[in-house]
Here is the input.
Amino acid sequence: CELVQSLADLSWRLQRIPALEMAIYTHGRIEFAGEFDDHDAALRPSMIELQTFLTYEKQLRNLQLQEGRLSRRYDKELAELRQLQQDREAKEREALATAARAALLARQRHENFDPQANGFDFSTEEIDRHIRTLSPPMVDRILRSAAQNDSLQGSKTRTEAA
Here is the structure.
């Protein structure tokens, strides 16, 4: 949440910079409007623009520096946010795959499967939708793998009991 707020703040500040630059040039046009009356009318706008730049060069450069810094910070924070989103999505996909495996096993054993009771945050509909995306060979592989794990667990339990 703080990262998103920071990105919003940075975006707002970046969008303000062009307006501030324009305000400096507008101020300069007003301030220097009468200074070049004795020059050719076609040259006056350029001369006013140049005088504005020279007079307010420090402020304009500062805005450019700030824009560069803010832009780099924005890019860095946006990359961080995207990485966090990708990590979260990968964890959700893995959790959904785990929930789907558990649901498939429960169905194979003719047991009820309640996702929330088994620690999953997905609805039954979400899990079923994911299962429908699995190919039949993938479903078979999941069930065979689970059966092998069950037989290993069973032999381990029998060995421990003996």
